[in-house]
Description:
CATH topology of the largest domain: Jelly Rolls
Shape: flat
Largest sheet: 9 strands, antiparallel
CATH superfamily of the largest domain: q2cbj1_9rhob like domain
Amino acid sequence: MQLQRGRMFSPVLLATLVALLPHPPSVDGELFTALADMEELLETEAVLITNLDNYVQVQEDKLLQLRQKVYEYRREHTEAARDVSAYLSNPVNAFLLTKRLTTDWRYVENLMTYEVGKEFLENVTSFRSVLKFPSDEDLNGAAVALMRLQDTYNLDTASLARGMLNGVQYSTELSAGDCFELGRQSYLNGDYYHTVLWMREAMDRLTSEVNRTATKEDVLEYLAFSTFKQGNIQTALSMTEELLELVPDHERAVSNKAYYEKELQKEAQQKILRGDDGSEEVPIDTTTKIQKEAKPHIYDSNERKLYEQLCRGEQQPPIALRSKLVCRYTTNRSPFLLIGPLKLEEAYLRPYIVIYHDVMSDREIERIKQYARPRFRRATVQNYKTGELEFANYRISKSAWLKDAEDDMIRTISRRVEDMTGLTMETAEELQVVNYGIGGHYEPHFDFARREERNAFRSLGTGNRIATVLFYMSDVTQGGATVFPSLHLALWPRKGTAAFWHNLHPSGHGDYATRHAACPVLTGTKWVSNKWIHERGQEFRRPCELQIDHPVEEF
């Protein structure tokens, strides 16, 4: 099956697809981290659908033959029943009756016992060794991604269940069973806040479903306990009593009911003791505790708040600063650019962040993707203590590294980066290509190594990362911005453009204002590539200044 590359994907559709496909025991569990891999799941599903259709067809052919035999037998039997003596007195009829109950019936009996479609069942087993299948980890990762999108973009649960993202209808609705599974995955992660949201949505959808995809008792069990974990014991007790009306001998519900009643008695006793001094009873405020425990994806920090507001397009630099920004053609003192200057758009002044337009062609983008796809591995981050690379939930994507020597086109891009930045590429890292998965993101981070990260880049021997060039290789329908929280700045992906900024001051001290993040991809697919440029060899290209260029407290 051939799939169109670069098509638009809805995270609701992809998460549902992951849930539908079977989960084999031996899978790397990282398909959800890149949409390039998720595309192959649609190919897997297409093969399974064809196989299932063939299986159903042979089963229907078998039933059709059996129905034909029923019709023939019933027709002859009805005729014989009209006058048994007359029917049997005919020697032909007597022979046919005997034949029907001997050779004919043996054929029918063999047809009934024959396992048609066995080869199609065997196909499913063989497919596992040649096709990509998601694992339970992929299912959980896809569910967590939806929760992340829901939180970051303030998506209403009911709208999200209808396949509507920010007011745009992208996919079919989720069933009660789909909502139940999202709630169950949240429950497995200890995320009771989202468990309650999605179990309530599952309950609402159960009432309108003709062919129910979940059971009320299953929803109530998860909903009641998660409500209790959020601190609402009375409501949890009411839900448990409702569950026991449906299943009186439900073992866990019986045990939980007794526990909830005991806890309510303790709570009532505490209220009496608090009122012994005659003062007016003041309710216990558990809001903060519930929020912290129930919603692990949201942190009570100004940076987190700014990050999410920027992702939603609700923040921007002040007008006084934006009024000073300009667009212009630039040669950066490069002789080559004299005949083809670059289009530069200023995004921020201090630190100086710019966007270069039309600096990567569609042909170059497709060639880079072609090289990167077979090499994709889940993106890593560097442990600041050990310097070792490791996976992290705050970076969901897959990446590949391309060397200049592999292709003239890649070498050309490196030379272009040198013209764009005025910095040598002799000590730059290889071109990193990144594809983001379902809700793919990279939370606020620095590209440079801070003073406490003593082991970072030691093996390279090229010093710290002095600058970053970030190429956008795709348009993103919704989400996916690169944001700088402390600057209130968001850069939105546009195919063929590149962002550039210095991570270090000329003195070599880190510029903490360059802390940035990649917002979750809400809809569409996001491809980027980047060059991290290092200090070594830049001494005369970007020399130190005569005055202190960084806050004194950084010393």
